[in-house]
Amino acid sequence: MAERVARLFVFFASLTVLRFCGANKGSNIRGFTPFRFSVEPVDTMAVRGLPAVLNCSAISNAPVRVEWKKDGTFLNLAADDRRRQLADGSLLISTVVHSKHNKPDEGVYQCVATIDNLGTISSRTAQLTVAGLPRFLSQPEGVSVRMGGTEMLNCEMTEELAPFTRWERGSQTVELDSRVIQLPSGALVISNASKTDAGLYRCTIDGLGPAKTSEEAELQVSADLGAEEKLETLQSPVAMAKVVGESVLLPCVMKGYPIPVIRWTFNGRPIDESNDRFTVIGGGSLQMMNLTEEDAGIYGCHADNGNMTSDIQAELTVRVPPRFLTRPSNTYAQESMDIIFECDVTGSPPPTVKWMKDGDTVIPSDYFRIVKQHDLQVLGLVKSDEGFYQCLAENDAGNVQASAQLIILDLDPSAVPSLTDATADHVASSPDKRSGPAPSAPRDVVASLVSTRFIKLTWRLPAEPHGDNITYSVYYSLDGTNRERVENTSGPGEMQVTIQNLVPDTKYTFRVVASNANGQGESSAPLTVATQPEVQVPGPAPNLQVVSVGSTSVTLRWERPITGNGEIQTYKLFYTEKGQDSEQDMEVTGLSCTKTGLKKFTEYSFRVVAYNKHGPGVSTEDVTVRTLSDVPSAPPQNLTLEVLNSTSIMVRWQPPSPGTLNGELTVYKLRYRKGLRKADAIEVSTTQLYQLIDGLEKGKVYTFRVSATTINGTGPTTEWITAETFENDLDESQVPGVPSSLHVRPLVNRIVVSWTPPDNQDILVRGYKIGYGIGSPHAHTVTLDYKQRFYSIDNLDASSHYVITLKAFNNIGEGIPIYNSATTRPQSAPDPTPMLPPVGVQATVLSHDNIKVSWADNSLPKNQKITDSRYYTIRWKTNIPANAKFKTANTTSLFHTVMGLKPNTLYEFSVMVTKSRRSSTWSMTAHGTTFESNPNSAPKDVTVISKEGNPRIININWQPPTEANGKITGYIIYYSTDVNAEVHDWVVEPVVGNRLTHQIQGLTLDTTYYFKIQARNSKGMGPMSDAVHFRTPKAEPSDKMSSDQGLQVKPGHPTLPEHGIGSNIDKPGITGSQENHILVIVVIVSVGAFTIIAVVVGAVLCTRRSNSHQKKKRAACKSNTSSHKYLSSSKDLKPPDLWIHHERLELKPMDKSPEPNPVMTETPLPRTAPDPTTEPSHQRRGHEVEESVSTLTGRRGVRAKMTMPFDSQPPQPVISAHPVHSLDHLHHHHHHYHLPPRGYLHHQISLRAPATPTPYLDRVPSAESVRNQPPAPEPPVAPGQSTCTVELQKTEAILKEEDPPSVNPPTGHVRPTHPLKSFAVPTVTVSTHNPPTYESALPSTPLLAQPVPGVKMASIGTLNRARAPMAVTVPNAPGQSETSKMLLQSDMTYETDELSEEMAHLEGLMKDLNAITTA
Q1: How far apart are CA 1275 and CA 1322, in angstroms?
Q2: pLDDT tens across 1227-1242, in order?
Q3: In what helix (H) or strand (E) does residue 417 lie, and over which residues does it extend?
C-alpha cells in the first residue's frame, strides 16, 4: 500500500511538472500524434458480377499509408486488376467473382493505416459475403383456405436469398400488410382470407441479376360450411439470434376450425400487446421492433380453437456488439518502468479481447501480460516498446477497436508538453530538472533473502547522499537480457526492497540507484542472484478427457505428466458439482477411472493432480461434463383442479422438485377419466403448467393425474385426484354481492386482510379488488383471483390509520364493497439488554484428550433447571500457536465434554448463553491442562558424528519428538550392525531426558552401524526413529594406533577401558621389550610382599580386642544371620571380616547354550567401559544432581555410578560384586572377560567411592525377562561386609583374570534360577525397553589378603536361598596410613584362631566350587 501511495505521489508530481513547467519551457519531447479511423469497413453482402466497396479512411496530421488485409494477409493491389484502393483508402472490387469452387472475394477484410517511423493501427474487421445463385429448394403448391381462415404458400430457398424474394399474384406484386405477411423463410402467409385473395401466386428472386421466378400455385377460397377442422400447425416459431436494435418476426401460423385464437407468452408471462414494439400480424406471428437485451428469453405460442390447444416455444437470443467502457489512453513513460493499458469492454456474449502493437498481435510473455481480464501490462519498458497499442474486442455480434500511443521519455528531459484537463492522455512518470549534485551509488548491495519467487535486497546509504529524503529505485532484469524493470522503495530512507513474482531457478541482475531532490544518482555495481529451484513436483496430467457413460457415472482418462520429476505415487481426482462450493476428491492409482454415484443430468467439473514424493503437482484445467439424462424420478407437484363451469375444469401443477427431473423436459402428459373407470382415460400432452379440459358432462366426477416426460421416457405420475363439474353454470347476468365478511390484522409495516365470498354462491365471481390508503381506500388498488381468501398489504407506515375496502367483480361489473379500517402498530422497542454470562466455569481434566467444562447460570432458578429454549456455546483454544483460533460447540445442558484435544496442552474455556435473539457476553475463562500421553512421534534430526582423533567413538545427536505429549524423562539408543535384526537383538544405551547427545565408544573399525532412538515420558515409550546408518573409518589415526597396537580383542570379548597409567605389556598378544616384563614381575612380587605384611599387622591388631566384647559381636552377627535381615543403617555395619585376594582365578561354564546364536556371537560390537579421559565421571540417582567423583577416583580410573533415567518402576535389590585391590597398587590394568554367546547386553560400568561404608540399594526397573541367556561370565565378588551384616543372595561372579589382582571388572547384576546352575548359567534380568541401572563402588583395600594357589573360582553367598539380589556397596580401600588410623579407632578386634577358622571355612568352600566346575 505504501508503495502504491509513493507511486501516486510521483505521478501527481510529474503531472504538476508537465502542467506548469513544460508549457513555458518549450517542447523538446514530441507530443502525441492524433491518429484514428474516421470510417471503418462494415459487413457487406455482395452480388456476383457486380462491384463491391469496403469503406475505410484514417485521419492524422502526418501522412498516412493505408493497406488492406484479407483473411489476415496483405493484399497486393498493384498486381490485382479487379481490386484497387480509392483515394480515401477504401477498397473497390470492380467485379465480384464467386462460384461453387472458386470464392476469391468472400472473406474477412481489415484496413491497416501506417505513419512511417511512428506506428500502425488496424481497423475493425468486416465480413464480405457473396449471395449464391438464385434457385428454389422447393416450389409453391396449390392450397385451399376457408373464408376467414389462414393459409401459407411455401417458397423454400437459401437464407441469404430471402431478402431478395418477393411474391406476385398474376402479374402484380403482392402488397404486404398486417394481414398478408412474408416470413423470414420467404413463405407467404394470408390470414383472414377472403374471396379477393384467390388466384395464382408465384415467388420471384430479384436483385441478383436476371429475375428468377418459381412455378405458379393456386390459392382457392371456399365458403364457411361450419364443419370442424383439426388444429394444424403450418409454421411454428424456431430459435433465432438477433442483434440489439434489429427487428425480428417469430412465426406462428395455425390452421383449423373454429379459427384458433393465438396468444404469446414471454418467459411464462403474457406479452403486453399494448407495447408499440410488439405486434401480432399475419393471424398469429409476433413481430418485435428495435430489440433490446432484455427481450432475450423463451417465447411461447399458445393456440386454442375450443376443441384443441397447442403450445409451442422458441428461444430468442439477443446479441450485443462489444462496447468500450474504458478505452486505452495515450501514455508517457520512462525506460524500465511498468505500465498498464486499460481496456474494459462489455457485450453479449462476453467479447474476447486481443492486443496489437503497430499492427502485430501481442503474444503474452514474461514482459507482456494480460491482467484484470482485459488490461495489457508491459513490464520493464525499453525504447523499442514505443508505438501504437490497440485493444480489439470481438463477439458474434461484431467487433470494435481502440488505440493509444506510448512515448518513452529520456531519463533527463529538458521540457515536457503541456496537458489540459480535456485530454485523456496521462504521464506515467517524469523527473524534474536537476539543480545540484545527485547522490553517489548505494553501497553494499546484497541479497539478504533469496526464495523461489522473490528476492529481498538491502543496501547502505551512499557515501555522498547530497541531501535528505533519499529514495531508491531497484532496476532488475533477467540475466543476459537488456529489458530492465524498476521497483521503487516504499518511502524516503527505506534501504530495502522485495522483488516479487520471479521465476524459480533463474538468474537476475540487480542494480540500485539513489535519488534526491536533484534527481537520480549513480548506479551501484550489478549484482547477479539466482532464485532457488522449486520443489520438483509433477506437472499437469495432459489430455484429460471426461465422458458421461451413464446418468450417474462418468469415465475419466489422462496421460502421465510430461514433467513427472520422479516416480508418480498416486493421482488425486477432484470434482465439484456446478453451483456448489465444496470440492470432493478421490485417489486413483492408474491413468483412468470411472466415477459413479453422481447425480443425474447434473453438470460437474473435474481436475486431476499427480503426486510424487515431494507432494502434489500442478493441477489440470477444469473439465466440465454433464451426466446423461434419465426419466424423471418424481412426479409433478401441487396438482390442483379448478371447476370453471358445468363443462370445463382447469388443471394446474408445478414441475417436479429440483434434481428429480433428470433431463430436459419434453412434455407433460395429463390423463383424465370420468368416474373411476380406467378404460376411458384420455391423455393430453402439453408443455405448459396448466391445461383446460372442456366439453365435460354436467354434474359428473372426473379424476386427473399428470406425469413429466424427458427424452428418456415418462416418470412417475401423481395420485389420482377428483373434481365434480357443476350441475348448472353460475349466473353472470348480474354483479356479485357484497363479501360476507372482511377481517384485518394490523402489524408494524403491513396489514393482513382475510374475507369470505358473497352469500349468494350462484352468481359467478371472477375476482376481488382491494382498495386501501391512509384515510381513504382509493389510494391503492389490488386485483386478486377469485380463489384467493387472504392478502397481505405490505410496505405500510407504522402507527398509521388505514381504510380498507373489498369488492367482488365479474364480467358484468363490480359488486357492493365492504369496509374496514386498522391502525398499524408502532415500531418495536429496542432489543432488550443482553443476558448475564454463565459463572463458575470449571474445566475438569478427564484424560489426555478430554476435558469436561461445567458452569452455573445465574438467570436460572436455584435448582439450575432449564425449562426454556436457551442454549450454551462453549469456545476453547490453546495459546500454542499464538494465533490459534477458537473452536466452539453448542449444548443445552450445564456441562459439556470437549473431546479430541492434544495431550499435555493447556486450554482455556469460556461459555456464552443464548436465548431467542438475546445473547450474553463470554464468561470468565477457565483453564485445564490435559494429561500426558505416550509420545506420538519419534526423536527427530538424528545425526551420528565420529569423534575427532578416535574413530572407535561416535557422538550421536538428536532433537526431542515433535509430539512429546509430556515431559521427556529419558531416551533409549538402539544400535546394531544388522538393520533387520529383532529389536531385542539390538544393543541399547539409556540417556537421561534432558540430554540430546550421547557418546558411544569401542566400535569396530570399517563397520556399518544402524542407530535408532526412542523417547519416553511418564506414560510410556514412544515410537522409534528411522534407522540412521554410520560407517566407522577403516583405520585409526597414527597416534592412536601407536598406543593401541598390541591390543588383541577376540570377537565377543569386549575390552575394559584403560585406567590410570596402567600398561598392557603383560597381556596375551602384547609385544614389548624384555625389560618391561622384568619390571612387571618385580612390581608383582613387591605388591605381594606388601600385602602379606599388611595382613599380618592387621591380624595382630585384631587380637587386642577383649574376648567378651568379641563374643557379644559374634552373637549379634549370628542373630542377624538367622533373621536374614538387611541392615541399611551405617551405624550397624561391621567392618569386613576377611578380604579375599583373587589371583589367577578362572571359572569355566558348566554347560553350553542350547540355542547358540552365531549372528550375535560374531557381531563386531565390542563394548568397553568409557574412557575416563573422554567422558566426565559423574553419577545420577533418580532425579538428583550428578556428583563429581573424587580426585582419587579419577586417578584410579574408577567410573561414577550411572542410573537409568526411568522413574516408573519400583526399586529392586541386586547384588554388586567388586574386585579386591591391594593396598599398594595405585593403578589398574585392562581385564578381559567373555561376552555371552547370545544377545547379552553389556552396558557401561560405573564405580563410586562412598564417603562412609554405608550399603545402599540401587533403584532399577522391574525385572522383565527378555530371553533365557546362555552361559555368560560374571565379575568376582568383593566382600565389603561381614556375612552376618548383609546376606548375599544367590549371586556369582566369574572372572577370567590374566592380570595382577588389581583389576576392576564390571559389576555383576544377575538373578539366578538354580542354586548350582547359577554359577555357570545366569538368567539376566533385563528389559528390552527398560534397561537396568548399574552401580558399583570403589573397592576397598582388604585387611587381609592371601593368595590361594590353584583356586580358579570364588563365590560368596548363601547357596540354598533364592531371594531377589541386593546391591552391596563396598567401602573405599584407604591407603596404608589411613588403614592404620581406621583400625585404631575401631573397637572391634578378632582373635587369630577365629580368623584362621574363617579362612579354613572359605578355603573349603573354594575347593568345593572348584570341584563342581571341574567335574
Answers
A1: 12
A2: 433 444 343 443 333 3
A3: none
